[in-house]
Every structure is written in C-alpha cells, then in structure tokens.
Amino acid sequence: MKYYTEPARELPVAGEYDVIIAGAGPAGASAAIMAGRLGARVLLLEQNNAVGGMSTSGLMSHWTGTVDSPLYAKILERCAAANEGAEQGKIVPWIDPEALKSVWLDLLREAGVSVLLYTFVCGVIKQNDRVTGVITESKSGRRVFLAKITIDGTGDGDVAAFAGAAHWKGREADGKMQPCTLMFKVAGVDLDRAVLLGSFESKHWTEKGELQALAREHIPAPAGHLLVYRSPLPGIVTCNMTNCTDVDGTRAEDLTRAELICRTQMPAIVRYLRGYVPGFERCYVISAGSMMGVRETRRFAGEQTLTEEDILTARQFDDWVVRGAHFNFDVHNLTGAGLDPTGVQHAWSQPAGYTIPYGCLIPKNLEGLLLAGRNISGTHLAHSNYRVMPICAGIGAAAGAAAALAVRHGVGLREIRVDEIQAAL
C-alpha cells in the first residue's frame, strides 16, 4: 500500500463543552438530553442531516424491546402526541420517522443541548490516557471540539476506536457479524386484509403456499424472508426484508456494497409482496432509509462485561445504570436469510427484565470517555439483546447522567457514586 504524508497544520478549536456526544442515534441523543437536563453544557455531533439515527434516518419501523427509563417513556409520549395517523395520541411502538425527528429536536432544545449536524467525527484529542476532545470534518473544514467528558454514541464505537480502546467484532468464534438491512416503506397497502408477519418464526399459509417459504423461493439470496410492520399512517407498511451478509459496517467499501445489494433486492421484494402477500397487491415503494441498518460491529472491553447468562437469569446488579431491559436473542442469520440458529424469538422464555452495570459503559485504560449504545462491553449473544433502540436509549440516558455528574463534582468517571447516577435516572 502506498502512503501520503499529510503536512502538519494547526486546527481551530471551534468550541469547548462539558460533554460532547458523537452520534445522535437513540443512545447519543438520549445521552445529550440527560446531560443537558442535569445542567451540563452539551454538544451533540451527527454526520447525517437529522437526529435519531436508525429511529429516523434508518427508517426503523418500531420500538422493539423495553426498558425502565423515564426518558424513553417521555419519547413514546411525545411520539404519540405528534402522531398524525389514525392512532393520534395513543402510545404505540410504531414510528413515524418524520414526526420523530421533530420529537428528538424538541427534547434536545428543551434540555439546552447544542446540535451540530453534517459533521463527521474523524479523530480524538488525548492527553496521555484521557480523551479531551474530538476532531471533526465537515463543510466548515477540519476542526477540534474540546470536552471534559466525551460520550461515544456512534454505534460502531468510532471515538473509542480512534482512542485505541480494546475491542472485538462479531461472534467470539469467528468474528462474523449480523447482516445489514436497508429499511424501506411501501404505500398502497390494504391494511384490512394485509398479512403482517413481524418475526422470522411467524408463518402464514395462503392458497399459493406458506409466505416465508414463498419468500425464500422468490426473493434472491441472501434475502428471502417476510418481515413487515404497520406504521402510524394509513396504508403504509415498513419492510425489514433486504439483507446483505459478510459486511463490516466500519468499512466504507462494505457499506457501499451493502447499499447496492440491498437496493437491487427491493424490486424483487415488491414483486413478491404484490404476487403472494394478501393486502399488498397494489403496493409501491415510497421511501428507503438514508442510512444502512448495521446491527453489529465493535464491542469494547469495559470494566465489566454483560453476558448472555446475565440476561437469561435476569441478573440484578447492585451497580446498575440500566434496569428493566427486556428483549430476546435477536440474531439474524449470519450467512443467509431468516433467524440464526442461536437466535430466539417466539420461544423466548425469560419474562423478567435485567440490568446493565455501570462498568459496561467504561472502556478499560481510558479516562474521560463513556460508551453508549450497542458498542458497550458485552458478548456477541448479549449484544443481540441490548442492541435494540429502547435499551440503547436507556444506556444513553445513563451515560449522559454519569457524564454530567462527573463534570458537576469535578471527578473522574470511575469516582462517581453509582447510587447518584441511579437517583438521577
């Protein structure tokens, strides 16, 4: 490989804050809101044109899983109030992405958070083992923002990786990661007749055959399943049906390949929906996500690590910062369509919520940095559970509270009393 040595140059310091959050998905945005509510001076950086990450730009269909978090409950309440569909005012899990963009912005504004969009974090500033800020690229050029505490809400853990934090990718045995999906919406659906299968284990027989089997037959691999969800708007359904395997979401080349493959699958998926799924005979595509749905990339070595056993036993850590987290092992097939053999959906039998300890948010050997979202310290199978948006929002709220309290007391992140974080949440 050839190299080019970039000439050294001075970078302008564009701002100094108590807390900087990189990435404005459910985890990052929740962290910013919580830190702002607790009095910190907060900057939220986002590379896209909207906040919300997968919940908005990714066109996610609904909030799946649960968490005991007043902030998450407030998000659902605001979504219900903003919903312009038939269920206006009723709290439902279905997402209207455009309405949710405004909900996120309203909550951030009320918390006094500064938001900077169209800004990509491309490096960190360190003093020994302490992260003291980030380097960004944007239309405004290459700039530096300094912070007392930085929170990595990028999903992929870009900030922690730039800082040199130890991490893993994929499952422990071979590093393989869950496939990527480009979400899209179809309109023209007759919801009075529509068959909406919301899990890989759901089946429905028609005179033409069983719908999941027909999907495998008529949709090109590695796609080949039916996952469709209603929306708050009449006649509109969200499709979680494109699929691209062997993707490393931290590589631009892989993300580009995933985008191209998923888009080439969409016409075949629509033909299948029109030809075989009741209620979809006149459906048509109206929108697709402006960001790829990446399920799994880096997980970092933290002071504590959440395991699948912790989830299966609904472990209640004394030093919890997230509680009431509940979902299944949602492992999409790592090599093709459908559910992976390690995944459990309908057969999930653990009814109780589990907790996540504070140490899972603290990367080893680094100061001044917290993890928020699917990049926290956990095993591959545990990650398949806590990666969902409500639990990530709960993790983000915890990170925001911890960061604000560390700034308020002028102490390191490892010196905060966990019971004070719990009280703030």
Describe the structure.
This protein has 10 helices and 17 strands. It is of the alpha/beta class. Helix 9 crosses helix 10. The chain is globular, with a radius of gyration of 21 Å. The termini are far apart. The mean pLDDT is 96.
Beta fraction of the residues?
Answer: 15-25%
Along the chain, the helix and strand elements come as EHEHHEEEEHEEEEHEEHEEHEEEHHH
Per CATH, the class of the largest domain reads Alpha Beta
Q: What's the CATH architecture name of the largest domain?
A: 3-Layer(bba) Sandwich
CATH-defined fold name of the largest domain: FAD/NAD(P)-binding domain
Mean pLDDT, to the nearest integer, reads 96
Structural shape:
globular
The residue fraction in helices comes out at 25-40%
Total strand count, please? 17
